[in-house]
Amino acid sequence: MFPIHRPRRLRKTETIRRMVRETSLSPDDFIYPLFITFGRGVKKEISSMPGCFQESVDKVVKSAKEVYSLGIPSVLLFGIPEHKDEVGSSAYDEHGVVQKAIKTIKNAVPKLYIITDVCMCEYTNHGHCGIVKNGDVQNDPTLELLSKEAVSHAKAGADMVAPSDMMDGRVRAIRLALDREGFKEIPIMSYAAKYASAFYGPFREAAESTPQYGDRRSYQMDPANRREALREVALDIEEGADIIMVKPALSYLDIISDVRDAFDVPVAAYNVSGEYSLVKAAGKLGWIDEQRAMMEILTSIKRAGADLILTYFAKEAAKILNK
Ligand code: PBG
Known about the structure:
Blueprint: H1 14-20, E1 30-37, E2 43-45, E3 53-56, H2 57-69, E4 74-80, H3 97-108, E5 113-118, E6 131-133, E7 136-138, H4 139-156, E8 160-163, H5 170-180, E9 189-194, H6 201-207, H7 227-239, E10 243-247, H8 253-262, E11 267-271, H9 273-284, H10 290-304, E12 308-311, H11 314-322
Parallel strand pairs: 1-3, 1-4, 1-12, 4-5, 5-8, 9-10, 10-11, 11-12
Antiparallel strand pairs: 2-3, 6-7
Bound molecules: ligand PBG.
């Protein structure tokens, strides 16, 4: 009690603050998303995500080298294919954009750990995350396509696959398919508690994956649900997920914290496109100190319990941390 206790004593200088700091960030915590597009010589800035680009396979090598040289161990690959169809066949084409990018990046930066996003929405002409029949996304038939996609990424040399579709049973289906094809050692990071969120808006421009009708509420989670996240995560772990993810991060810090307390597998959190764009927009307007807001957000995600953070801020934050 005051005057015996004075918490300000431990806040007096930066040195003592450093000594008692409970949470620290490192470039090791980050996974940087890359958007691979078709063609050659393409590097196109995503207007709603300043500093992020769609890049063709030849251009992405330079970005991959930069990421690794900043001490960031891993990238997450998304593909924007030349052809989209009803069943997203470019997703599991061995000559697809992601498959090519994996080989090219592995060749140039062998130690960079490549994770691939496994989903249908970038590859289907309707923009939904699976096969659609009578306006509804068909769960079980979609599992087969996701398994084919995951196996084709593994064949191309991916280090880990990350299903983001939110179909029931997909972790098990992918695990069985990988094992059957000889990829027993490839881990799965599942987007386990993925909410139907407005914060994915800018990403859908980046990945050209906006649903042409309807929305994703029949497969992604209701933002109002907290207990359900624990059920989703438990199921994915039972099905064989090695790392589980909560997405988005910022409006879901309670979920990250719950999941951290309830399970002992590594927890990843996806600091999504809308969370990035808000900071960038306010920074541009001079309404916020962009760098401080960025570091505060990343620290809060880590403090909530995330071991890994997927973030478009990875390069900028690593530059600050490396100083
Ligand atoms: C694909 C996918 C999405 C994101 C990652 N994987 C979009 C969606 O579900 O609509 C969002 C990432 C972001 O907003 O940064 N299903």
